From TrEMBL:
Residues 73-83 have a biased composition (Polar residues). Residues 1-27, 73-113 are annotated as: Disordered. Residues 16-27 have a biased composition (Low complexity). Residues 123-191 form the Glutaredoxin domain. InterPro entries: Glutaredoxin (IPR002109), Thioredoxin-like_sf (IPR036249). This is Glutaredoxin domain-containing protein. It comes from Hevea brasiliensis.
Length: 270
């Protein structure tokens, strides 16, 4: 049934001899090319160091040399400073003057400003004009604070009578000083302006200044209505009078506005 075993007529090529005779382990030409490409070529020339490598080496050498030079310079300067310190200490010891006893300081207090004839009242120089808002508000604030103590106040409005300005300049020593309003005198002594009055009032010290002063009359004056000025009887507020001998001339009884101080509620002039 089955065919008996016998020798095959197909011949198998023996490649062992050819492979052993060849130096390459590969039998195909393509693999030989790969082997040749991968193999190191002993005849290839050796590459020289690039320019960047030489620059990097030169830079590292210069840096190390600079660090060594700075270290040597710092050591020498430190040694020089140590050598010069004893001389500096010796010179400072010899040049230091002996201590002198403290001398008493003579501090002169500024002279106080006062006005005569106002020992029992408060005198306030202010203005009722609204030309400068800050000045007007300061005057109103000071008047409100002082009126709260219910004491007699002699209010002198510079906008109603220019003679008050001359009077205030004489008190402070001439007309060269720049005067700001208001100005407050209590008991004949100058206290200050708006800022000083506010500070004294907030600290509770202003009450001590007004103690013992006469109380203010209640109500409004019937003669002037609280304005403290009335029309002049001689010129009827025109500030001009007529005489047959010299004609018209300025009235000497009133101010430039034809007003005189109210005799009922105003204090006597200083």
């Amino acid at each position: 049934m089955w065919r008996q075993w016998s020798h095959s007529t197909v011949k198998i090529r023996d490649t062992s001899s050819s492979s052993s005779s060849s130096s390459s382990p590969f039998s195909f030409s393509t693999f030989k090319d790969i082997q040749r490409l991968c193999a190191d070529d002993p005849s290839a020339p050796t590459k020289k160091s690039s320019i960047f490598h030489r620059v990097r080496v030169a830079t590292s050498i210069i840096r190390s040399w600079s660090a060594t030079r700075r270290l040597t310079h710092s050591q020498s300067s430190a040694q020089t400073q140590l050598d010069s310190e004893p001389e500096v200490v010796a010179s400072s010891v010899t040049e230091t003057p002996p201590p002198q006893p403290p001398q008493p300081e003579c501090q002169e207090s500024p002279p106080s400003i006062s006005i005569p004839g106002a020992d029992k009242r408060i005198v306030v120089y202010f203005t009722s004009l609204h030309v400068v808002r800050s000045t007007f508000e300061d005057c109103r604030s000071v008047q409100s604070i002082l009126q709260g103590f219910r004491v007699s106040i002699d209010e002198r409005d510079l906008s109603m009578d220019s003679r008050f300005m001359k009077e205030l300049q004489q008190i402070f020593g001439g007309g060269h000083t720049t005067l700001t309003l208001p100005r407050v005198f209590i008991g004949g002594r100058y206290v200050g302006g708006a800022e000083e009055i506010r500070q004294l009032h907030e600290a509770g010290e202003l009450k001590k200044f007004v103690e013992g002063l006469p109380a203010a009359e209640s109500g409004v004056c019937d003669a002037c209505g609280g304005y403290r000025f009335i029309l002049c009887d001689d010129c009827n507020g025109s500030h001009k009078v007529y005489t047959e001998k010299s004609g018209f001339k300025s009235c000497t009884a009133c101010n430039e506005n034809g007003l005189i101080r109210c005799p009922s509620c105003s204090c006597a002039p200083l």
